[in-house]
TrEMBL record, chains A, B:
Protein name listed in UniProt: CHAD domain-containing protein
Gene3D superfamilies given in the database record: CHAD domain
Domain CHAD: 27-352
Region (Disordered): 36-71
InterPro entries: CHAD_dom (IPR007899), CHAD_dom_sf (IPR038186)
A Pfam family it matches: CHAD
Superkingdom of the organism of origin: Bacteria
Length: 355, 355
């Protein structure tokens, strides 16, 4: 039943051989990967300045290099996802060796941007909580440019502490990414992708294998995982569920978040499977888009809340700083709850449409 | 239009003289006031133990005395509210002298209970935020009995700090209430109420005055005040409005709360006016009840949030304590937001029913 309403009823692969459809998609993504890699090298991706460069001279190159890294991750995720969903069509040795390498690469490249976005989110929240109208998005992409005039001492100190900690983490992530891109491990991945761009290692049976049951299985894994989510609770506004462990002694990431993160990954795999099947003509499913955005927001808010809690464990901070970080943590956990509500609302829409 | 759907369509005062209806109501409330006062004196309301007595010997007396104080406040509020709404029917000098005295009395008597309830709310929230299942309501009425085993150091210290501060405030409020009940000012109020119980000072025109336009005016004041509330925002879950000044430098009560507090008072006056008109047969309006409960919760959460913020300004507290108080403050401000949403939902129900 799940795949019935997750996939359009027509069969776009009719007439073309299943293996060819998958090979075309993988070749296109591999080509895109190589193009982004070239662009990343040309725009100073090998330079020493982190993505959020404050010097205007390095800004353009840094921004373009950030775009190139994003595009690189985008195709790496799509290749990896397709290898997973359409496993039976591909040479198992090759594809099983390839996936962890792609995951390593996109994980390494994602970190720098994640720290930068986290800092921007937290400083924006501090401003909002201080009743200040100015948000980072209105002052350009530089989160440090947020006016601190209206902030209380605690909020300003909390902002400075988060800025210090997350900027350090970002700089380290930047170095790690540079190191990764220069490593022999990376060159091996790039070589594999280059091979993929010309020749996809399909199994002999690939031509006769139907892609649709495999895509449907991905859709099923998604709907099963969604069914296991506490959606009834999430659909009740202000259920106060997300902050339930807000003061627990456990410093590990909240276990209640894990199933939502898992659904986020499965939703992505489902989306990629649809892209393989329907290609460029793939109709944009507004509902999947909204659900995916809610889950991205869920992940970002959960990580920001955790960063605020971790900053509060810095030794010798002032009580006012700790207080502001506590307010900030709770605020981001409520964002987590709001994102779950938004996901429930988006997902619900489909249930209504289904007869 | 407002009073059309706020009041039942029948005219229960038809056949009886308006002045008599109001006089009957006031006499009944005055009698109830005197009865509660007697009960309060008999059950040790004049004793030295605050309402939350820990000794089992004083517990019953203290509980009954608390009930008596509540009943005293209940009738004081009703008398005061009726004097206000039906002003033109009553001797102006007498009624204008009486109202501030009744307000002083019920305000003085309310404080002790308010501090006790606030502490219970905050300790309950600290437990909830620590992922502890035990809530104060399950361990009896004594908030100090909340198990602290699962609390982090910060949450436990925050709880102890709040316990200290609010218990001190409650003890002071208890003494102030005792002092008030022994004062000549109080005896003057009690004497006035005793007069009211036998003879209501109506104006000569009272018999010919219609109560309904006056009750309708009270209903109009309520609907006008509700119309001025930001209900569209409140109706969007997770609008993050209540925490907007969560970290602002201003330590005064949040100005955004004031119109909601005002609606709470006007809702009460409207309810009392209905009681005067319809007496004991007054149909219970579930919607008014739900709306009123939401506004009580709004007030309680706002004051609890403010108590947490004020505890965080205690000199020389540990950062972990301050952090827990920050989380607690934000949690209670979200309760404020949730209460506004609940009010909007309750109020909305009527709008749907109205053609």
């Amino acid at each position: 039943m799940a795949q019935q309403h997750l996939d359009p009823p027509t069969d776009p692969t009719a007439g073309s051989v299943a293996g060819d459809v998958l090979a075309d998609y993988l070749r296109a993504q591999a080509t895109e990967f190589l193009r982004s890699l070239r662009q990343h090298r040309e725009t100073g991706g090998g330079g020493g300045t982190p993505a959020r460069a404050n010097s205007s001279a390095g800004e353009n190159g840094s921004e373009e290099s950030g775009d190139a890294a994003r595009a690189l991750r985008r195709s790496a995720r799509r290749i990896s996802g397709s290898l997973h969903t359409f496993r039976p069509l591909l040479d198992p040795d090759w594809s099983e060796a390839m996936r962890p390498e792609l995951a390593w690469l996109s994980g390494t490249l994602a970190r720098e941007h994640a720290y930068s976005a986290r800092l921007e989110r937290l400083l924006g929240a501090l401003n909002r909580l201080s009743g200040s109208a100015a948000l980072p998005s209105q002052t350009g992409s530089d989160p440090a440019a947020v006016p601190k005039g209206q902030l209380t001492v605690g909020a300003a100190k909390a902002g400075a502490l988060l800025d210090r900690q997350l900027t350090l983490a970002r700089t380290r992530a930047h170095s790690a990414a540079l190191q990764a891109l220069g490593s022999s491990r990376f060159h091996a991945v790039a070589d594999s992708v280059a091979v993929l761009a010309s020749e996809v290692p399909l199994t002999p049976a690939a031509a006769a294998t139907d892609l649709r049951p495999l895509a449907a299985a991905a859709a099923d894994r998604l709907t099963d995982a969604v069914a296991a989510l506490p959606l009834v609770t999430a659909g009740h506004p202000y259920n106060a569920e997300a902050l339930v462990h807000g003061l627990s002694a456990d410093t590990a990431p909240q276990p209640q978040d894990a199933p939502w993160h898992q659904v986020r990954l499965l939703l992505r795999l489902h989306r990629y499977a649809r892209e393989v099947l329907y290609g460029e003509q793939c109709p944009v499913d507004v509902r999947l888009l909204a659900a995916g955005q809610a889950l991205n927001r869920h992940r970002d808010a959960a990580e920001a809340a955790s960063a605020a809690a971790s900053a509060a464990r810095t030794p010798r901070i002032a009580p006012a700083t700790a207080y502001a970080l506590g307010v900030l943590h709770a605020d981001q956990r409520h964002e987590v709850e709001a994102a779950r509500f938004a996901f429930q609302q988006a997902w619900q829409k489909e249930a209504v449409r289904t007869p």
